[in-house]
Design goal:
alpha+beta, FAD/NAD(P)-binding domain, Glutaredoxin, about 30% strand
């Protein structure tokens, strides 16, 4: 039997679930399929960076994740059973009106995925578990994806979010170019441990790297991480992990009471040679594989989905031309390459965690979708992340929340009317912006900026916000200050 859908998303990790949420709130018919019988059970990606918190705020999951997690604890260094020092995990980043979140928030990956899954279900989205892809065939009208049970899904577009060993990517013949970050294998496990406080991240250094036990916020578990000698394979069993802990810490083997999940891997950094072939897109680990150091992988992956979702929605609605989808690879592949280099630098001790890793300075100034028309721009330029702030008593992040575009008219007259597709907010310039007109994309970046409306009509038409003849989509009315939106 063939099931028809607009978008097939392969993989129910953070990438696939985020994309599913964004498409569901746009009314796009999408199906998420997952090879496993359930959501991922481990803590692997546990750090939510500030930029991703802004994304999750927009998607309606930040409250659940803030409640489920907590801040990163101070690291305590142990030697011969004694505490010999402390170190903070991150250099501080100063908060201001435009950047309300500046510190990473710890949430085990399994909890992040639970929150995303619940939000997707609230919006009417669906995940089909136990669906393993075996192949995909494209034609002029879309892609047909087949599964091991003989079923198939026919979709206008497909998105491979099926991880670093992506079956879809390999089937498309897209290569991955990269390097080994560390020749030593890494063991990561979620364990329960006695006789160790949960107020600190415990570090037991050795000449080869050592062992760390980090209390996982919102749980009674620790994440264990250990660098193993070259040419060995980590022992993932309970007995193996007990022996490891007893050998490298002051704890006894029996103090490890349970292993909930364990994984071994060799850190590498690799980038897909392309992020799109025809009607199929790569996102998340299927497109870029990181060292876990610095907490960039999950966050970069979520933002892939956030970039792609509004573009798929605009094209599938018939408003925007197919060419809009070309901007996905144009924008996201350079960012992924930059984050790969950053993760590798953190892993090797060359880059400190802090301003470089919170992802607030990432943007698309060089993108073909970024149009800056001011001869003397202020602090925010087309392609930049749109900061938070207050305009006439309205918080900007509240105004941005939802699948629409937002036109900010800051100490300038608004040239278009408020509508379903473009919401208008007029008022004095907040401290985080310069004056002018700012058209903010659905993913929170400034697409167009100017002092006057010169070039705005053409830009609106290009991204599907004007019908032929210049008329706006959605309801029309008088320009007014807009109340906060909802997802």
């Amino acid at each position: 039997m063939v099931v028809d859908t607009d978008v097939l998303i392969v993989g129910a990790g953070p990438t696939g679930l985020t994309l599913g949420i964004d498409l569901a709130r746009r009314g796009v018919n999408a199906l998420v399929v997952e090879r496993s019988g359930a959501l991922f059970p481990g803590s692997r990606g546990k750090g939510i960076q500030p930029r991703t918190m802004e994304v999750f705020d927009d998607l309606g999951v930040l409250g659940a994740l803030r409640a489920a997690g907590g801040p990163y604890p101070v690291r305590v260094i142990w030697k011969a059973g004694e505490r010999v020092g402390e170190q903070r995990m991150f250099d501080p980043v100063e908060a201001d009106e435009g950047t309300p979140y500046t510190e990473p928030w710890m949430v085990p990956q399994w909890r992040t995925q639970e929150a995303l899954f619940e939000r997707l279900s609230e919006l009417g989205g669906t995940v089909a578990f136990g669906c393993e892809v075996v192949g995909a065939e494209q034609d002029a009208d879309g892609v047909t994806t087949s599964f091991t049970d003989g079923s198939a899904v026919r979709a206008r577009y497909a998105v491979a979010a099926d991880g670093g060993r992506s079956t879809v990517r390999r089937g498309l013949g897209i290569g991955m170019t990269g390097d080994t970050v560390d020749p030593n294998p890494i063991l990561v496990a979620d364990v329960r441990v006695r006789r160790l406080d949960r107020e600190n991240w415990h570090v037991f250094p050795t000449d080869d790297g050592g062992l760390m036990l980090c209390p996982l916020a919102g749980t009674d578990e620790f994440q264990l991480a250990c660098r193993w000698p070259q040419d060995t394979e980590p022992d993932l069993s309970l007995d193996g992990i007990r022996r490891l802990v007893a050998a490298l810490t002051h704890l006894d083997a029996e103090d490890v009471t349970e292993v909930r999940w364990a994984s071994g891997f060799r850190p590498r950094a690799a980038l897909a040679d392309g992020f799109r072939v025809g009607s199929v897109f790569l996102a998340g680990d299927a497109a870029h594989v990181h060292s876990p150091a610095g907490g960039q992988g999950l966050n970069t992956s979520v933002q892939d989905a956030y970039n792609l979702g509004w573009k798929l929605g605009a094209v599938l609605s018939g408003r925007a031309p197919e060419a809009l989808l070309d901007s996905y690879e144009e924008e996201r592949r350079p960012v992924a390459a930059q984050m790969l280099g950053l993760s590798t630098g953190v892993h090797r001790g060359e880059v400190r965690r802090g301003k470089a890793t919170v992802q607030l300075d990432l943007g698309y100034r060089e993108s073909s979708l970024s149009a800056e028309h001011r001869p003397a721009p202020g602090p925010v330029v087309a392609g930049d992340r749109a900061p938070d702030g207050m305009v006439d008593g309205v918080r900007l992040f509240d105004a941005f929340r939802g699948p629409h575009w937002t036109l900010l008219a800051l100490d300038a007259p608004a040239p278009v009317a408020d509508s379903d597709a473009v919401r208008v907010l007029s008022g004095p310039t907040p401290a985080s912006y310069g004056s002018g007109l700012f058209l903010v994309r659905p993913d929170g970046y400034v697409g167009w900026a100017g002092n006057t409306e010169v070039g705005l009509t053409e830009y609106l038409a290009r991204v599907g916000l004007r019908r032929p003849g210049g008329r706006s989509y959605g309801r029309t009315g008088t320009t007014a200050t807009h109340s906060p939106g909802t997802a």
